[in-house]
Write a structure and sequence with these properties.
Layout: H1 6-21, H2 34-45, H3 52-60, H4 63-71, H5 84-103, H6 113-133, E1 139-142, E2 149-151, E3 157-160, H7 163-170, E4 180-183, H8 185-193
Parallel strand pairs: 1-3
Antiparallel strand pairs: 1-2, 3-4
Helix pairs in contact: 1-4, 1-5, 2-3, 2-4, 5-6, 6-7
Amino acid sequence: MSSAPIDMREREELCDLLAELGPDAPTLCEGWDTIDLAAHLVLREHFTRGTDEHMAAEKAKGLPALIDRLRGGPPAVPWRIPGLRTLMNGLEYFIHHEDVRRANGLGPRTDRPDLEALAWRISGFVGRRAARQIRPHGLELRPPSGEPRRFGPPGGAVLQGAPTELLLYLSGRRDAARVRLTGDADAVAALRGADTEV
C-alpha cells in the first residue's frame, strides 16, 4: 500500500481501474458508466457545472484523455491544501472508487486503516445529516470496535459495520454497503426511505 495521501492514492487506484475496465463499465451512480464518472470528476475539480453539454464535451475527449487529466492531479487551490485535501477529495475519490469497484464485483478492502479512520471522522457529519432526515427517530452508528456515535434520542435505528461501509450506506450506496441495520421498525423504515446520497 502506498504512503501517498489518501486522495492521491484513491485517485491513482481509481484511474488504474478505469483504464482496466474501459469507458462502458457500470458504476453505482445511476445512469453513469465509467466514462461519465471520469468526466464528472474532471469537471468537479475545475469548478465547471456538470451540465449535459459540459459532460458531453468531456466524454467526447475519450476515457484515456480523461484519465490522463485526472492523473495530472487537481489544481493547487483548494484541492492540494494540507488537511483540506483529505476531507474534500479523499472522501470523493474513496466513494467513487467504490462506485466502480462494487459495480464490477470487487468487495471491500480490508487493508486500509487510514480510510477507516477518515470514514469514521466523516461519519459524524453524514450521521448527523441522516439523523435530521429521520426525526423524531434517533440514529446510532456502531463500528466493529470502539464507542458508537448516537444522533438524536436512543432507541432508533442502529447501523453496524466498518466505518467505510457505514459511510457508503449513508452516502446512498445502500445495496452495496455491507452493514447491518436494526432497531425500532419505524426508525429503520425512515432511514431506508431517507435521501442521504452525496
